[in-house]
């Protein structure tokens, strides 16, 4: 490596996220690696005739953001143009949802159509897309509508026929097909395996390699625009691992990728199975572990809680009986068997969990996995994903086990009022995504946007973590659970890098680490928290020193 820098950044604050030296004045890069971090005088001593000196002009340089829990594949397939994006962030009303779906069906006669992103709680006038409703729109070809959470899908009769779903079809492990009083499928499917069965009837034509590569390139570009340099694919189907590796290892890829494979009972039962793409980790691609879904989503009423859902029009809209508590996707024993099996195979487990009752079952599963080899479990850094209703005591117990948590903070931004007014009441909303409790329990907390379930934007996660304001009302839910700006910044940089076992490569600006960088309009530590999103934006992103967005 040359002593002369290829590029030097100076003229603005350098926020390293390195606790040993959190602030610097300048940074040098050569061959994609950080070669110096320090004072302007010392770093400029590495300047040569061909060095590109970037004058930050007061802007701030930070580590590139790490999306701890993303879904770049479904992002590219479900909302990249010309996909039918009906999420509440883009289509606010139910009337517009059906207008967009009808237009898509009319423009593709004889072809299957999928639409992504309905939300019965935010799109208040939306009529449930039952089999009957969807048959009226598309009587002869498959039509599938997926919820914004990704935990429910709705199909018409041709979609059910194409998927082979009948009254005799058994429910998949950890999922179910909703049935009427006669046992016939209504077209509604809940949780991953059942949702995927419906989605495949409209998506299989999209799964050729050329289309997947195009979709992933689009998705990677969207991540780079918001300062992300590493993204985690948190629902990797084994058949798509080779495509993910190909996309991530392309010379022009804008992000590096780490994948968690969907952890099925079949994989747990066959420790010698080797899925396509399961090769030694490369800088740009690697498999980090297995993903399990212990429960579902509050927006479908499918989480197990010690407190009931409220009994009102909103909960009736999502299909809940009076004062329901929700359910888990697995029985505790089945969940434990999966966690134990994957841990024994050397995989870190990332478990989707929202309800506090579900969290108890996940803790018990991890405790069983740790029973014979507690240090092995701790070394694998098993994860707990989302963690909506988790209590301070549960966070402390998880920390003692060596588990680590990633919070879907923008639940509070987009659904804080729904949680307070419709689902659980203000006390539960105030402790939903209890980030302060998690940090105080000793966790290296990460924040995420969960792919397309909320707009992918780490700055939004930071803003919500430091204010806990709901959009658009401006109401604050749980001010005692706020993080400081510094804590929130670490939660989208150094902490998720550590969770992915990449703490020696990314997440901090330290000599010898990869030059993954984000340039912000100003030092985020100096901004009024209530104006954070108005005053801070990403101006440039670099991956291993290569400009990926400006």
Written description of the protein model:
This protein has 550 residues and is α/β, with parallel strands linked by helices. It is built from 21 helices and 22 strands. Strand 13 (228-236), helix 8 (241-248) and strand 14 form a beta-alpha-beta unit. The relative contact order is 0.13. The model has no long low-confidence stretch (mean pLDDT 94).
Keywords:
single chain; 550 residues; alpha/beta; 8-stranded parallel sheet; 21 helices; 22 strands
* Protein structure class: alpha/beta
Report the major sheet.
8 strands, parallel
The low-confidence parts are none
Shape descriptor: globular
- What value does the Rg take, in angstroms? 23 Å
Kindly report the oligomeric state of this protein.
single chain
Strand coverage percent: 15-25%
- Helix % is 25-40%
> Care to count the β-strands?
22
């Amino acid at each position: 490596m040359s002593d002369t820098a290829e590029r030097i950044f100076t003229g603005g604050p350098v926020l390293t996220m390195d606790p040993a030296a959190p602030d610097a004045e300048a940074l040098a890069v050569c061959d994609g690696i950080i070669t110096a971090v320090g004072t302007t005088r010392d770093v400029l001593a590495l300047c040569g005739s061909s060095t590109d000196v970037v004058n930050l002009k007061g802007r701030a340089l930070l580590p590139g953001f790490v999306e701890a829990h993303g879904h770049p594949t479904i992002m590219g397939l479900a909302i990249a143009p010309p996909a039918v994006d009906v999420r509440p962030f883009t289509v606010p009303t139910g009337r517009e949802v059906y207008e967009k779906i009808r237009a898509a069906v009319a423009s593709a006669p004889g072809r299957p159509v999928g639409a992504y992103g309905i939300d019965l709680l935010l799109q208040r006038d939306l009529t449930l897309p039952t089999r009957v409703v969807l048959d009226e729109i598309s009587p002869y070809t498959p039509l599938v509508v997926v919820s914004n959470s990704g935990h429910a899908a709705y199909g018409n009769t041709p979609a059910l026929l194409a998927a082979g779903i009948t009254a005799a079809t058994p429910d998949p492990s950890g999922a179910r097909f909703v049935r009427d009083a006669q046992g016939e499928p209504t077209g509604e499917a809940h949780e991953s395996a059942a949702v995927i069965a419906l989605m495949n009837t409209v998506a299989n034509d999209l799964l050729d390699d050329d289309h997947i590569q195009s979709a992933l390139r689009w998705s990677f570009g969207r991540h780079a625009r918001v300062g992300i340099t590493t993204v985690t694919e948190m629902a990797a189907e084994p058949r798509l691992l080779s495509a993910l590796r190909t996309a991530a290892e392309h010379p022009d890829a804008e992000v590096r990728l780490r994948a968690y494979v969907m952890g099925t009972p079949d994989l747990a039962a066959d420790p010698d199975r080797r899925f396509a793409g399961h090769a030694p980790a490369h800088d740009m691609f690697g498999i980090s572990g297995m993903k399990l879904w212990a429960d579902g989503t509050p927006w479908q009423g499918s989480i197990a809680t010690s407190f009931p859902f409220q009994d009102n029009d909103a909960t009736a809209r999502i299909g809940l009986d009076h004062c329901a508590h929700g359910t888990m996707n697995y029985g505790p024993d089945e969940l434990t068997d999966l966690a134990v099996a994957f841990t024994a195979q050397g995989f870190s487990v990332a478990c989707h969990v929202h309800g506090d009752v579900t969290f108890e079952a996940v803790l018990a599963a991890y405790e069983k996995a740790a029973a014979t080899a507690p240090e092995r479990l701790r070394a694998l850094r098993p994860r707990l994903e989302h963690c909506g209703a988790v209590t301070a005591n549960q966070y402390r117990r998880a920390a003692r086990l060596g588990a680590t948590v990633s919070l879907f903070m923008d639940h509070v931004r987009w659904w804080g009022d729904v949680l307070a007014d419709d689902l659980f009441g203000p006390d539960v909303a105030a402790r939903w995504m209890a980030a302060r409790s998690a940090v105080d329990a000793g966790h290296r907390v990460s924040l995420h946007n969960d792919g397309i379930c909320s707009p992918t934007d780490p700055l939004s996660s930071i803003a919500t973590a430091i204010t806990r304001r709901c959009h658009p009302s401006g109401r604050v839910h749980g001010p005692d659970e706020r993080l400081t700006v510094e804590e929130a910044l670490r939660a989208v940089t150094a902490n998720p890098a550590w969770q992915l076992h990449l703490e020696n490569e990314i997440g901090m600006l330290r000599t010898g680490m990869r030059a993954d960088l984000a340039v912000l309009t100003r030092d985020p530590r100096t901004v009024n928290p209530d104006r954070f999103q108005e005053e801070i934006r990403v101006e440039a992103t670099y991956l291993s020193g290569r400009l990926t967005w400006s």
